[in-house]
Specification:
Strand order of the largest sheet of chain B: 2-1-3-4
Distance between the termini of chain B: 26 Å
Number of strands of chain B: 5
Radius of gyration of chain B: 28 Å
Helix content of chain C: 25-40%
Radius of gyration of chain C: 18 Å
Chains: A alpha/beta (367), B alpha/beta (374), C alpha/beta (248)
Order of helices and strands of chain B: HHEHEHEHEHEHHHHHHHHH
Strand order of the largest sheet of chain C: 6-7-8-3-9-10
Largest sheet of chain C: 6 strands, mixed
Oligomer: heterotrimer
């Protein structure tokens, strides 16, 4: 039995690695994705550029400006002097917010009235907008209190202690997701395509009349892609650790173990796709429709807790959801098999079901 | 240039698409899938952040602070009687995002005192937003307390001297959906262009029908225009569909001019489809065309266009690279039209770049279509 | 005691939905025979062969190959047959030798026999000098010979050839049939479908299949004598016209 499987594996490697373009495609896309997510993709809110419009030109208004300039959260980049200029800044998205001090600001303060400062926020990006709003209110209110007491208000300070990712780097959050993305794409698509291609060129029929058993064919067809996936996983993890300095708190063994369990689901799905597709075109389309929602709903970038409740329930059957939790758990939190047991067992159950289901569909008949 | 020949190619290509229920279905399903995902399921709105509070002080002051958290929609206080182990467990099992620890001497320390925020940093985005929210709540609370004390000490109530009046421009409801959906249309068109062309045109090289076509008197430009226009119809239908869904289903306000939207979509789609055909012609293989298509169109349109991830936050080198991604200009235009209601006057430069890229890509595609006599 | 027949088909029926592809076919093929299956496109020849190879399940009826039931023992059937389909179905992106090695492994040819079988197949297909070339780049006739070579690596007692020579030039076809004769002389049973009438002349016995039914079965010589025809082509056209007249 192992002999026949080995023959198929050898053939599969030959076919995959013979073409130069294919070799390139096993290396370039993973690295490219890693670079994009590692360097480019970033949800950090650093130093949003803002504008300060001073229509009062008083000592107080200039003091307020210096408070904004002194704050780490802001980067006062523009000093517009007309509404048209403000409009332009916001329209082009050059400034995220405009602080507008109206004429009479100082007069109101001296009278002991509340002087209002307008904060115009670009709401296009809702998160940035709510955070900026909060920060602006703080600076403005603190200034008012300082005026009243003559000293800086002693505010209670929230001292953050950030676990797992102390510098709050986006890449530490994204890179485990990229690793999952790559290993899923490769094992799922290559498996599906390898089988469907044989069907398309007619060699599948030739294989079916040989004494080979379905299980041998399935193993022979999937194991090479496990190897390719493993090599890619090692490559990408190495780059992630060496180039991006992603922390790796957990144990390598846990990672290997979890990956093997996860591969059951991707290979099973690949086999399943191959049983429902007759042509490579169909296989590609089905894998797109299978992969995209599963990836988007995995929590790789959009937290699952933000999703509507029915969708949250739906993610319970999404293997990617569990695997990404596991990866982040191993990389960032240093969790072990015991802590990850719920996710691992969910993956195992899904994996068994998918593998069993597709193995049942995968037989050596044409009808 | 013969319009009869272009029309013949167009008709053939269009029949292909219409007869093959799968490609037609795909052209319809992709927008529905993406709109469903991004309009309904996925949201970047960070609110109802689950938290556990560990109140070591148990004083009126600490209870006031807890109330400030409980009253905010940004937080979902799961428990106010937590302790360190329960916070740790909550964070490890992804049940909560942060734990708030109020020290035993909070009341005494209030002037200059600290509360501790224990934060799960693994989701850096949620964590930094949560941190910002917590800081704001705590600071505003402290300011208020100080004011109360002053009032007590002086025996009179004084209104705050300064106050912020916030006005949100554009997206007043601060919904992330309004921000995402307009930028989604470029992503959808990019997928359609890359996927449909790679799956429908690359096989023509694989099975040799392209050779047949190239042996007729048809000129490469005509062939390209014919093929392009057939897919253009689909892309245009997708654009209209997405627009309708955005406006009527997701209630995203459309503030700007429809004519400008139509014009820029036309130019963008033209360029995107040319790119898809160029890839098919250059790779001549479905699988590779599909992968190159996804990598060169979908991924950049998704990641580097400002669709979700702000271009301003990217490192200089990558920011420079984004200038070569047409989707970036189209995303800017779509967001400008939808959210800000700005038009040609503000965004003529973006439109110009879109046009330049479309022309360059089309020329490239034509040159790839030319039969090579080796 | 007479040897048991290599192929026995009894009242075989295969339906695809309402379409009857194989309609109550019964026949026997003796060991060592070259048995020709003749008929226009869509007559049900390929479907019958696919059932015999265990690729399709029969709707009703029975068939045994080498004494094994095709419906219940398809894996045992597969050990004793070689199959070559009308579509070229080897790996174009593997070399001649790699294809042979691959099928040798899949058929489980014992290690010590492998080299011998491979050189036999290479010699037979006349591909010894092109063993290192990619299969996809071989001319059509060579590909067919290689496909036959791959199908006989494990010395199957029965060989199913489904239109093995379609799209091959007359000279290559001739040399292909020479190979078939050699194999038959070595005791192998050969079950071959074709729509080339001249090829039918080479068979020991020929069955005419039309619209899913076997309408006539005899030796080529008997056919011609009975109908006074000069060639199998005439026989074929006569039989089909007769059948058309009968059903009309």
């Amino acid at each position: 039995m192992w002999e026949r499987i080995l023959v198929i594996i050898r053939k599969e490697f030959r076919q995959t690695l013979r073409e130069k373009r294919m070799r390139v495609f096993l290396i370039v896309p993973p690295i490219m994705q890693l670079m994009l997510f590692g360097f480019a993709v970033n949800l950090d809110l650093v130093n949003s550029p803002i504008a300060f419009m001073d229509l009062d030109q008083s000592v107080e208004s200039r003091e307020l400006l210096s408070h904004f300039q002194g704050s780490q959260q802001f980067n006062v980049k523009y000093m517009p002097d007309s509404d048209a200029a403000v409009q332009k800044l916001l329209d082009h998205g050059d400034a995220q917010a405009v602080i507008k001090v109206l004429p009479g600001f100082a007069r109101e303060i001296h009278k002991g009235h509340t002087a209002h400062v307008q904060v115009l926020v670009d709401g296009a990006n809702s998160n940035t907008a709510s955070i900026l709003t909060g920060y602006c209110s703080q600076v403005i209110q603190a200034y008012g209190q300082r005026l009243r007491t003559g000293v800086a208000p002693l505010s209670a300070v929230a001292v953050p202690r950030v676990w797992f990712n102390p510098d709050l780097l986006s890449r530490n959050f994204f890179v485990p997701g990229v690793i999952m993305n790559i290993i899923t794409m490769m094992t799922l698509m290559l498996t599906a395509m390898a089988i469907v291609r044989e069907r398309e060129i007619g060699t599948m029929e030739q294989l079916m009349v040989t004494p080979i058993r379905p299980i041998e064919l399935m193993l022979g067809k999937t194991l090479p892609f496990v190897c390719i996936g493993a090599v890619q996983m090692t490559l990408v993890t190495t780059v992630a650790l060496l180039v991006f300095h992603i922390p790796f708190q957990g144990r390598v063994l846990t990672l290997v173990f979890a990956t093997l369990i996860y591969l059951m689901t991707t290979l099973g799905s690949g086999l399943f796709l191959s049983t429902v597709s007759q042509t490579q075109q169909q296989a590609l389309m089905s894998s797109f429709f299978f992969f995209t929602p599963a990836f988007m709903l995995s929590g790789f970038s959009f937290p699952i807790r933000n999703m509507p409740e029915p969708v949250q329930w739906l993610t319970l059957i999404n293997p990617m959801r569990y695997f990404i939790e596991i990866l982040r758990g191993i990389f960032l939190k240093g969790l072990g098999v015991a802590e990850l047991a719920p996710q691992l067992s969910a993956l195992f159950v899904i994996g068994c079901m998918v593998l069993f289901g597709s193995a049942r569909r995968f037989h050596k008949r044409l009808d | 240039m013969s319009f009869r020949r272009i029309r013949a190619v167009f008709r053939k290509e269009f029949l292909h698409i219409v007869r093959d229920p799968r490609s037609l279905g795909m052209a319809l399903l992709i927008p529905i899938l993406m709109l469903g995902l991004f309009g309904y399921a996925l949201s970047l709105d960070v609110n109802h952040l689950p938290a556990i509070i560990y109140d070591q002080d148990n004083s009126p002051a600490s209870r006031d602070l807890i109330q400030a958290f409980q009253g905010s929609t940004y937080f979902d206080v799961r428990s106010v009687s937590g302790d360190y182990p329960s916070i740790e467990k909550g964070i490890n099992s992804n049940k909560i995002v942060f734990g708030l620890v109020i020290p035993p001497d909070f009341t005494r320390l209030l002037e200059g005192g600290n509360v501790q925020v224990l934060l799960d940093g693994s989701d850096s985005n949620t964590a930094s937003i949560a941190m910002a929210y917590v800081t704001t709540v705590v600071n505003l609370y402290a300011l208020e307390r100080t004011a109360q004390r002053l009032d007590q000490r002086t025996g009179m109530h004084v209104k705050p001297l300064t106050e912020a009046q916030v006005r949100v421009w554009y997206n007043n409801d601060l919904k992330s959906r309004n921000f995402i959906v307009p930028g989604l249309i470029p992503v959808i068109l990019m997928i359609i262009a890359a996927l449909l062309t790679s799956l429908c045109i690359a096989p023509e090289w694989e099975n040799g029908t392209m050779e047949q076509l190239l042996s007729t008197p048809i000129r490469p430009t005509e062939l390209l225009l014919g093929k392009l226009s057939a897919f253009f119809v689909l892309g245009a239908a997708d654009t209209v569909m997405s627009l309708l869904a955005a406006v009527f289903l997701f209630n995203v306000p459309l503030k700007g001019s429809l004519a400008f939207l139509g014009l820029s979509s036309f130019i963008f789609l033209f360029g995107a489809l040319s790119w898809g055909i160029f890839i098919s012609a250059a790779t001549k293989s479905q699988l590779i065309a599909y992968q190159v298509g996804l990598l060169s169109s979908f991924l950049p349109a998704f990641l580097l266009s400002g669709f979700i991830y702000a271009v301003d936050n990217m490192p200089t080198v990558i920011r420079f690279i984004t200038n070569f991604i047409p989707a970036k200009y189209y995303v800017t235009i779509m967001k400008g039209i939808f959210l800000k209601g700005v038009g040609m006057k503000v965004m003529w430069l973006e439109l110009l770049w879109l046009t330049v890229y479309a022309v360059i890509i089309f020329t490239l595609a034509v040159s790839k279509m030319k039969p090579k006599i080796a | 005691m007479p040897e048991p027949d290599a192929v026995v088909i009894d009242k075989l029926v295969k339906r695809f939905g309402t379409f009857v592809a194989v309609d109550n076919v019964s026949l026997r093929v003796a060991k060592g025979e070259i048995f020709g299956f003749l008929g226009p496109n869509g007559a049900g020849k390929s479907t019958t062969i696919r059932i015999l190879c265990g690729l399709l399940g029969p709707t009703s009826g029975q068939a045994t190959v080498s004494g094994f039931d095709v419906a219940t023992q398809p894996e045992l059937v597969k050990r004793s047959i070689g199959y070559m389909s009308q579509k070229f179905s080897l790996y174009g992106d593997l070399t001649v030798e790699e294809n042979l090695d691959f099928f040798s492994g899949i058929y489980g040819v014992p290690k010590e026999r492998r080299e011998e079988r491979k050189s036999f197949a290479l010699r037979m297909a006349n591909l010894e000098e092109r063993r290192g070339e990619l299969t996809g780049q071989l001319p059509g006739g060579w590909k067919q010979r290689l496909a036959l070579g791959c199908a006989i690596l494990h010395e199957p007692p029965i060989l199913f050839l489904d239109e093995p020579t379609s799209g091959v030039d007359p000279i290559a076809r001739r040399s292909f049939w020479d190979l078939i004769y050699d194999l038959s002389a070595g005791g192998q049973t050969i079950f071959v479908t074709t729509h080339y009438m001249d090829e039918a002349e080479y068979c020991h016995r020929v069955a005419l299949m039309y619209k899913g039914k076997v309408i006539a079965l005899d030796t080529p010589r008997a056919f011609k004598q009975r109908l006074g025809a000069k060639s199998m082509e005439e026989v074929f056209i006569n039989e089909i016209e007769r059948q058309e007249a009968a059903t009309a």
